[in-house]
From TrEMBL:
This is DNA/pantothenate metabolism flavoprotein. Belongs to the PPC synthetase family. Residues 1-24 are annotated as: Disordered. One of its GO terms (biological process) is coenzyme A biosynthetic process. GO terms for molecular function: catalytic activity. Residues 1-20 have a biased composition (Polar residues). Pfam families: DFP. Gene3D superfamilies: CoaB-like (3.40.50.10300). It comes from the Eukaryota. Residues 176-294 form the DNA/pantothenate metabolism flavoprotein C-terminal domain. SUPFAM superfamilies: CoaB-like (SSF102645).
């Protein structure tokens, strides 16, 4: 790629996978997912694929610069915990280093765990700042063995997080797979979806990842770092194929599929969510606006095609889509805040059950 524009191309999902490189770890990742699904099938569990975090679009092959999509992974990581709590097995397909179930409570940026650890007061403290550092050349003290404890204020919360974390690990119901680029995400989504098709209606998709709409095909990437000496940089990107289409119609037509719609203008949230349902024919779109997403979301779903009701003796057709708003108080106590994901998952589980029974 030089510092000029290029003819863009339209990729279908099919042509995308024919022309864009398969990630080196795809085979191993798919095998891991395959084994996980087999174990969950034997245990007769429903499985949900939770996608989480933002995808990147590299601008160079030896990547120095890339475009990123906004998402910390809070929605995905929090939701995964509520699915696990409800007895679901979770495949957590997430952006590397974004928030994860359980450890999210101790994010290094908002609640670093070192802040609530204490060293036994009986131990001699360091006399100088230099000797306090582990990089000091002195050998580490061997006796007495240092005792580290959790501050009293944090103990109850840590205990409940740790207990849930250990229980999930003992049960083996959480499987983690990570991506960085949109290309890795798309290949993984296809591979995992195909693996999940053996579950039929017991498979749920909860697509909370923020996926790039535009990308640069591998064939047009500059090998080395784009040089700044040539003046302005113009890049013409191609559209990422709409991957929900083959997911719904080919990879797992039986699956219960929930996608998200993020907008910054609340006025267009519902029309855009309805448009997605119209286009892809899946089960639910969760609309959230950027500034209120932690306190208010709307679930949009299609109403059965023949839904009509009688009003004053006349048959009146129902609206095509139903809205279901979920809202929680935006002022939550800091020690035990209510999380909107709890209510979202509760509602989705009811609908998934109906979906399973509908088979
Ligand atoms: O992680 P947080 O900081 O908590 O933020 C959560 C969130 C706001 C990112 C999340 O709640 C959310 O809204 N995610 C979807 C963002 C979005 O608008 O995605 P989209 O318009 O690019 O895609 C719509 C849907 O299709 C999404 O479910 C997406 O995962 C899926 N998609 C999109 C494109 C594509 N090629 N493949 C997809 O699967």
């Amino acid at each position: 790629m030089s510092n000029t524009t290029h003819e863009s191309q339209t990729f279908s999902a099919e042509s995308y996978f024919e022309t864009q490189p398969q990630p080196p770890s795809l085979v191993a990742d798919t095998e891991g997912v395959h084994e996980f699904i087999q174990r969950q099938q034997q245990a007769n569990r429903s499985v949900v694929l939770v996608t989480s975090g933002g995808t990147t679009v590299p601008l160079e092959l030896n990547v120095v610069r890339f475009l990123d999509n906004f998402s910390a992974g809070t929605r995905g990581a929090t939701s995964a915990e509520y699915f696990l709590k409800a007895g679901y097995a979770v495949i957590f397909l997430h952006r590397q280093f974004s928030l994860q179930p359980f450890s999210r409570h101790y994010s290094h940026s908002t609640n670093p765990f070192l802040n609530f650890l204490e060293i036994d007061a009986a131990l001699p403290s360091s006399s100088t700042i230099d000797s306090a550092f582990p990089y000091s050349n002195d050998p580490p003290p061997t006796t007495p063995t240092p005792q580290i404890t959790v501050t009293t204020a944090e103990r109850a919360k840590l205990f409940s997080v740790l207990r849930a974390y250990k229980a999930v690990h003992a049960l083996g119901t959480l499987h983690m797979v990570s991506f960085v680029t949109v290309n890795e995400y798309l290949w993984l989504l296809r591979a995992v979806s195909r693996e999940m098709s053996v579950l039929g209606r017991k498979a749920m998709y909860y697509l909370a990842a923020a996926v790039s709409d535009f990308f640069l095909p591998q064939q047009r990437l500059s090998e080395h770092k784009i040089q700044s000496g040539k003046g302005n940089l113009s890049i013409e990107m191609d559209q990422v194929p709409k991957i929900l289409k083959p997911l719904v119609s080919e990879w797992n037509p039986e699956g219960f599929i929930v996608s998200f719609k993020l907008e910054t203008d609340e006025m267009i949230l519902i029309p855009k969510a309805q448009q997605a349902l119209e286009r892809y024919g899946h089960q639910v779109v969760i609309g959230n606006d950027l500034h209120h997403r932690k306190h208010r979301v709307v679930l949009i779903s299609p109403v059965a095609a023949d839904a009509t009701k009688k009003l004053d003796g006349a048959l009146v057709s129902q609206p095509k889509y139903a809205e279901f708003w979920i809202e929680i108080d935006s002022h939550q106590p800091s020690n035990h805040p209510k999380e909107i994901e709890e209510d979202i998952i509760e509602e989705l589980l009811k609908r998934h059950n109906v979906w399973i029974e509908g088979s």
